[in-house]
Amino acid sequence: MNNEHDLGYKHILSHKKNFVEFLRSFVEKDWVELISEENLVLIDKEFILEDFKEEEADIVYKVNIDGKDIIFYILLELQSKVDFRMPIRLLMYMTEIWREELKNTEENVKKRKDYKLPVIVPMVLYNGKNNWSAARNFKEILNGYELFEDSVVDFRYLLFDINRMDKNELLEIANVVSAVFLLDQDIEIGEIIERLKLIGRIVRSGASKEQQQVFKGWVINILKNRFKGEIRENVHKLLMETSEMEVDDMVSNLGRKIEEEFEVREQKGIEKGIEKGEDSKARKIAVKMLKKGLSIEEIIEFTELSENEILSIKSKLDNEKN
Questions:
Q1: Domain map of the chain by residue range?
Q2: Pure H helices in 58-149
Q3: 192 CB-contact burial (10 Å; exposed 0-12 / middle 13-18 / buried 19+)
Q4: What angle (nearest 5°) sits at the alpha carbon of residue 99, between those of residues 96 and 103?
C-alpha cells in the first residue's frame, strides 16, 4: 500500500465540502441532494481488520436524513491490482461498523420494536491501471446464489474507477476532487504538465481557501511520486518553491517549470546524442585510415581522437586479424 497516497486521499475526502462535492459530482442518485456539510459527521475511526490492515485505508461519514442515520463507508483501494475479495472485505467492514453501533447503543433502545441499524452505503475508490473486474454485488461471490433469490445476503457497492474517468468530464466538473482525479490518472508526464496548466484556475475559482490549502497539500505530497531519479528531486524543490503561491499560480508555475526542466534534459540528451554520433563517425574514419596504413599522428590530426583511443581501435583490428 502506498501510505502517503492513501493519506493524501483521506485528507482530501475528510474535508466535508470536498466529500459533498464528490458525491454530487460522481453519484447519480436522488438522495445526493439530501446531503450537506451541516448534517455530515466524520467518524474518526478506521474499521480495518487485522487481515487487511496493511493494504488499505478507509473513511467513514455519518449523516442524519429525516431522523434516520446513514453511514457512508469509503474504502480507498489505491493499489494496482484488482482484489476479487472486495465484496467479502466490505461485508466484514460493514459488520464491524454495525457491531460498533450496537456496542454504543443502550440495551433498552436496542430492544425496542422500532430500533433499526443505520444503512451503510459502501464505496470503493480505485486508481489501478487495470479495469475493475471484481464482483460488484455481494451475492455474486456466493456459490449457487441463483437458487435462493431473495433469501441470501446482498448489497452493491459504488465504484469510482479513477483511470476510467473521462478527462473532459472531469474538467467540466471543475472542483477540487475532479482536479485530484485529473492529476492522479495514469498518464504521460507531458499530459500531467498540460493538466497542471489547466486546473489551477479551476481550483481557485471554485474552491474555498481551506479547500485550496488541502489541494495544495495533496499536490505537494503526491505529485513528486510521479517522477523518478534526479527529476523527482528537482520537482520536489519546485513544489517547495511554489508552495506559498496562490493555488492557481502555484499549479501553473509548477506545470511551466516542470516543462522547462524536461526541455533542458531533452536538449542535453540531443547534444549528448550528437556528440556520441560524431565520436562514432570519427572512429569509423580511424578504422579506414588504419587499414590504409596511415600513421597514428596523421589519424589524430584528421579525426581529433586521442592517441589512446586510436591505439585501442588498432588493437581490436589486430585481434580480428588473428
A1: 1-164, 268-321
A2: 86-103, 107-110
A3: buried
A4: 140
Helix residue ranges per DSSP H, the chain: 3-13, 16-26, 86-103, 107-110, 167-173, 176-184, 189-206, 209-222, 229-242, 247-291, 296-303, 307-321
Rounded alpha-carbon distances, angstroms, from residue 293 to 83, 287, 289, 315 = 69, 10, 6, 14
For residues 127 and 165, is the Cβ–Cβ distance under 8 A?
no
Residues with Cβ within 8 Å of residue 252, at least 6 apart in sequence: 196, 197, 200, 201
Strand bridging mode 68-77 / 119-126: parallel
The single-letter code of the amino acid at 146 is E
Cα-Cα-Cα-Cα dihedral sign, residues 262, 264, 266, 268:
negative
Question: pTM (2 decimals)?
Answer: 0.73
Beta bridge partners of 73: 60, 122
Which residues, including other chains, have CB under 8 Å from residue 33's CB and lie 6 or more apart?
24
* Main-chain dihedrals φ then ψ at residue 88, nearest 5 degrees: -65, -45
For the chain, the average pLDDT equals 81
Sign of torsion, CA 184 190 191 193? Answer: positive
Are 44 and 28 a contacting pair, CB within 8 Å?
A: no
C-alpha cell at 286: 580511424
Buried/exposed 110-146: b ≥16 CB within 10 Å, e otherwise: eeeeeeeeeebbbbbbbbbeeebebbeebbeeeeebe
End-to-end CA distance of the chain: 58
Label residue 32 exposed, middle or buried (CB < 10 Å: 0-12, 13-18, 19+).
middle
pLDDT tens column, 225-236: 666 666 666 766
Cell of 67: 431522523
Amino acid identity, residue 269?
Answer: G
| Closest-CA residue to 46 (of 24, 23, 14) | 14
pLDDT tens digit sequence for 152-186: 999 999 999 999 999 999 999 989 999 999 988 88
